[in-house]
């Protein structure tokens, strides 16, 4: 083993070069790790590359990490010059061993800004670092910075296309298409990176927060992406029933979809001449004659249809989420996360129903049947006594709820949601009490009983007392 300072320098420089060469030989490396090895053996390289896995023998880390760390600090203090290629290699080695070293990420930001690195390469490096350090906050922060650079490029090209000049128009169109395709690929890759990190570290708050950020900035208003995420997350939460962060992400998706569906009519009737159906209580005077004759203009009819489809799709979301939660609570008793999620879903439904009825109060006749009944918390669809349900909308406690993996219908697709289709049943206060009673009657798990009683108390003290 090397002992003198000169020998250590030679050793470390060789190891850094071996790591760089490993990435050149195999650009598809998908995981890194440290191989337990207390001392060097057989005078061989400590860098091991097997298929797509890169390993570093542990004996060399105590030499390698201080060396690249000091090299980088000397460069930042302007005491030692390094060219761009050497900086890229040193920061790569350092971040694979210690991804929370902020200075290294800042150096790579400078390399990106001057064009020495491309964003995809930095995202790839962060992805590898997260395979060993899935909770590294600095890595997630840097990923968001890189993604912002990509979004700025797309935005700049979009602005330039508004003022085309001759032959530059086609070039800008081609570049814009390439950037759009890159953005779609990046979005898909980020979802995969977040999912892998969440599986490697339970309740990985950093990974789930990053996933939310990605959707908010790269898929804002894209209902299909949110629907696909909600559907794909069903299997994940079913396999991680104690992961609070995963269920919080699902709650975010549900809330965003409900908000988007509730705003659908407003987008259809946002122009001044079409605002009559969006705000009936403040309709312009010239719409009064049409309403008095029981007729709607074409724009108003389209707005009513959009609002009805949005309400039906929202009810479908609530219905599927409650069924999923009920099935998981019965299948995995004693998990507080599931009861907390059910509480959030019901609270979201309760407030959505009240706001929906208040907003559309003057158009009662066009409301879905499940929102027009004497009991404001009990949908009519539940009162029609389908198989397995009582006359008060309560499902028998011993009957398991089916988990449907299909994604909710898109309210913008009139072929999938046609007029006259009976909306699904949504959560109702009597049915919730019936569900809790069924759990308590057949419960022999002490934690399950405690969570059920706490949920029942929450229904009685918070929901039941609200107007």
From TrEMBL:
An example Gene Ontology CC term for this record: cytoplasm
Keywords, in A-Z order: Prenyltransferase, Repeat, Transferase
Region: Disordered, residue numbers: 158-177, 263-308, 381-432
Keyword Repeat appears in the UniProt entry: yes
InterPro entries attached to this UniProt entry: Prenyl_trans_a
Bias (Low complexity) ranges: 263-285
Name of protein: Protein prenyltransferase alpha subunit repeat-containing protein 1
Species this chain originates from: Zoarces viviparus (Viviparous eelpout)
């Amino acid at each position: 083993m090397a002992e003198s300072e000169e020998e250590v320098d030679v050793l470390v420089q060789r190891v850094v070069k071996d790591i760089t060469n490993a990435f050149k030989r195999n650009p598809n490396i998908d995981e890194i790790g440290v191989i337990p090895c207390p001392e060097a053996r057989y005078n061989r390289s400590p860098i091991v590359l097997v298929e797509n896995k890169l390993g570093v023998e542990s004996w060399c880390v105590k030499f390698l990490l201080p060396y690249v760390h000091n090299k980088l600090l000397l460069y930042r203090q302007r005491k030692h010059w390094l060219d761009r290629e050497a900086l890229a290699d040193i920061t790569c080695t350092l971040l694979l061993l210690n991804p929370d070293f902020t200075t290294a990420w800042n150096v790579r930001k400078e390399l990106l800004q001057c064009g020495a690195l491309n964003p995809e390469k930095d995202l790839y490096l962060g992805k590898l670092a997260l395979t060993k350090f899935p909770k590294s906050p600095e890595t997630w922060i840097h990923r968001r910075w890189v993604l912002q650079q990509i979004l700025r490029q797309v935005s700049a090209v979009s602005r330039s296309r508004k003022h085309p000049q001759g032959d530059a128009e086609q070039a800008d169109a081609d570049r814009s298409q390439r950037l759009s395709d890159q953005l779609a690929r990046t979005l898909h890759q980020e979802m995969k990176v977040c999912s892998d990190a969440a599986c490697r570290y339970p309740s990985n708050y950093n990974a789930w927060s990053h996933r939310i950020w990605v959707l908010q900035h790269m898929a804002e208003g894209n209902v299909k992406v949110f629907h696909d995420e909600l559907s794909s997350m069903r299997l994940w939460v079913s396999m991680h029933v104690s992961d609070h962060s995963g269920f919080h992400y699902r709650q975010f998706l549900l809330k965003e979809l409900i908000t988007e569906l509730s705003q659908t009519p407003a987008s259809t009737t946002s122009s001044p001449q079409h605002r009559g159906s969006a705000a009936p209580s403040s309709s312009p005077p010239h719409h009064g004659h049409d309403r008095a004759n029981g007729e709607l203009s074409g724009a108003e009819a389209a707005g009513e249809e959009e609002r009805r489809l949005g309400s039906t799709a929202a009810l479908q979301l609530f219905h599927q989420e409650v069924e999923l939660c009920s099935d998981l609570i019965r299948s995995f008793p004693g998990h507080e996360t599931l009861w907390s999620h059910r509480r959030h879903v019901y609270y979201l439904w309760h407030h959505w129903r009240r706001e929906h009825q208040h907003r559309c109060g003057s158009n009662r006749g066009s409301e879905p049947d499940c929102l027009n009944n004497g009991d404001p918390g009990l949908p009519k669809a539940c009162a029609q006594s389908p198989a397995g349900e009582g006359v008060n909308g309560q499902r028998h406690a011993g009957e398991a709820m089916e988990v449907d993996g299909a994604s909710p219908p898109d309210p913008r697709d009139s072929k999938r949601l046609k007029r006259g289709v009976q909306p699904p049943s949504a959560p109702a206060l009597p049915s919730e009490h019936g569900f809790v009673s069924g759990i308590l009657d057949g419960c022999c798990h002490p934690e399950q009983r405690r969570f059920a009683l706490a949920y029942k108390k929450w229904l009685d003290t918070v929901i039941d007392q609200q107007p």
